[in-house]
Amino acid sequence: LQSAVSKVDGVNRVSRPVASGWWSARFVTADTSDAPITVDMDTAKCSGRRHAGDERRVAFYWDAVQVGDSALTVDVAAEVSLDTATGAGMAAFKLSFATPRSSPSSAAKLGLWEWTVRVGGMALTEEHALLRNEGFGVLYECDGRVGGPCKSFSGSYPQATWQALAAYNRRARNGGLYLAAHDAAGAMKTFTATVSSAADATAATAAAAAGTAGAPAADSSASGGGGGTSGAPLLSFAVSVMAGNAGLSLGKQGAAAASEFPVVLALFAGDWWDAAAVYRAWALPSASWARKGPIVRRPDVPAWLRGLGVWVNSHWQGRDIFNTTWGDPAFLQNAVLRFNERLDLRKLGGLGHHWYEWDTLGYELGSNYTRCASEVTCGFDTHYPEYFPARAGFRAAVAAQEAAGVRVAPYINGRIFDTGTRSWADRHAAQFMCKAVGQFNLNQTQEHLALYRESYGSRAQFAVACPHTARWQDTIAAVARQLVVDEGTSGLYIDQIAAAGPRACFDQGHGHSLGGGAYWVEGYRQLL
Q1: Using the 8-state DSSP alphabet, how is residue 512 labeled?
Q2: What DSSP string runs through 99-155?
Q3: Are the CB atoms for 33 and 238 separated by under 8 Å?
Q4: Is 376 left (phi over 0), alpha (psi -120 to 50) or beta?
Q5: CA-to-CA distance for 528 and 477, rounded, in angstroms?
Q6: How far is CA 22 from CA 1, 42, 115, in A?
Q7: pLDDT in tens, 218-240
Q8: What are phi and psi of 244, to 5 degrees?
Q9: Which residues are bridge partners to 126 per DSSP?
Q10: For residue range 377-415, what is the model confidence (pLDDT) as tens digits?
Q11: Is 333 helix (H, G, I), strand (E, B) or coil?
Q12: Structure confidence at residue 5 (pLDDT)
């Protein structure tokens, strides 16, 4: 990418081209093991390069691209389309990979593992800011130094909160660069921001200039009012997507060996708010999770939930520190009702009670968390999804609070299964857990797969459940039903499903695409 200039503000976002082309891909064969083979646009060996199109849409073709040192080849096509009708000019990138007619054997011997689109070469001066798609948004104010506040980072979606990255000149409020996946289904992907020294890009700049006679030069002086940029660190953004049915051959992947959604480059004026507005303008009418409209107008969201003025979090004190008294139903009934009455919270729309350790979690029933009769350990972050029986007095305490207008929503975890519990073995729960590959090649079988294991300081060992499986969906639905119908709560809080990262699952018995795809988000949507 030599330059990216907005006709609105006249600012070129590319100070120097980044060290690699705007696409790369990784492939597996029958012989790969430790890692897939990477093919990069700038260094790809191919039989020919060509393009066709007009000023609005152009298709680029790389014919018979050699994969590693093998004789296997792949045809790569990249479509770039421009949209200047919106307030932010946009370029949409889509990739596809196919078996060359000259190498039909590649259909069975080569498989797409992952594809990446990257853009960048933006100089980060002391006037710039970098927006990260984490939590409610993280904004780094740059100081023009490598190793300063604006550093490289990478994160997976849907653990990342939204599918976009952005940078801009925070003083001039222009020169904005936005890279996003406009993916309405929410497939798994990785977002990366790379901040490197200008010296690292010198060789790439020279090579690009030598091979692009007549192309517009990158204008380092057009920094959006930011002064000189020659020594400023350079920023590039990348979106990497694991292919659907990764680990299968191109012949079996079919349409999965292509991007099912565009990666969008947009140039905007303004700051983080304006970058968010670009994403919002796409997401509201298009994204699957926004199709029911704003929460305030949805009939399936109860009015009491929208109107609650205060929530209390009983028992959890941050960093997984607990005072076990605060999970005791008798103690909490008294404390919460007094709090609600003293502050007269009905005037503020009512009180919500987010209740931790309402369940026995391995402790002997009636011991009030004093006798641990567990297989391994007891308490928070153990025994999931064995939540019942609840602690003695729980149902009565719920009834008293609900009668006083307090809405009780107990904590559960909707993502992990304690492998030390009796039900883990009794239910053969490993069958509906996510499975990781043991090696990167086309020879994968069920025997090569392994569980994803996690631990959170409680000494319990967990496996990550596959949300696409009916057995896990039914497991969490049964817990929810018992809490709301039998125990009388107004709702429940299901942890991790919108906060912890996805795990690519390769279990062929789960009925979803292998590796990449949108089954993580779709599975949780079905569960909810």
Answers
A1: S
A2: --TT-TTHHHHEEEEEEEEEEEEEE--TTEEEEE-STT-EEEE--SSTTSSS--EEE
A3: no
A4: alpha
A5: 8
A6: 7, 8, 11
A7: 333 334 433 446 678 999 999 99
A8: -65, 140
A9: none
A10: 899 999 999 999 999 999 999 999 999 999 999 999 999
A11: helix
A12: 86
CB atoms within 10 A of CB 304: 14
Q: Measure the CA–CA gap between 303 and 145, rounded to whole angstroms.
A: 50
SS3 (DSSP) at 310: strand
Angle between helices 470-481 and 519-527 (to 10 degrees): 30
Short-list 59, 172, 176, 194, CA closest to 116: 194
**Contact predicate 451/434, CB 8 Å:** yes
CA nearest to 223, candidates 18, 9, 7: 9
Q: Enter the DSSP assignment of 280.
A: H
* DSSP letter (8 states) at residue 397: H
Positive or negative: CA dihedral 347, 349, 354, 358? positive
Question: Can you give the pTM of this predicted structure?
Answer: 0.91
Return the SS3 of 425.
helix
CA nearest to 17, candidates 45, 53, 41, 51: 41
DSSP state of 515: B
Compute φ and ψ for 508, nearest 5 degrees.
-70, -10
Place of tokens 């605060």: 326
Separation CA 2–CA 8 (nearest Å): 19
Place of tokens 């002997």: 364
In the structure, what pLDDT confidence band is assigned to residue 500 with cuts at 50, 70 and 90?
A: very high
One-letter amino acid of 177: L
The separation between CA 36 and the C-alpha centre of its own chain, rounded to angstroms, equals 22
Strands (E), 443-482: 450-451, 453-454, 462-464
Using CA atoms, how far apart are residues 285 and 287, in angstroms rounded to an integer?
A: 6
Q: What are phi and psi of 395, to 5 degrees?
A: -60, -40
| Look-up of token digits 């999965």 | 256
Give, in order, the Cα–Cα distances in Å from 319 to each of 218, 245, 457, 464. 48, 38, 10, 21
**Residue 465: helix, strand or coil by DSSP?**
strand
Q: Is 143 exposed, middle or buried (0-12, 13-18, 19+ CB in 10 A)?
A: middle
The label of the residue with tokens 């260094």 reads: 43
The tokens for 295 are: 């929460």
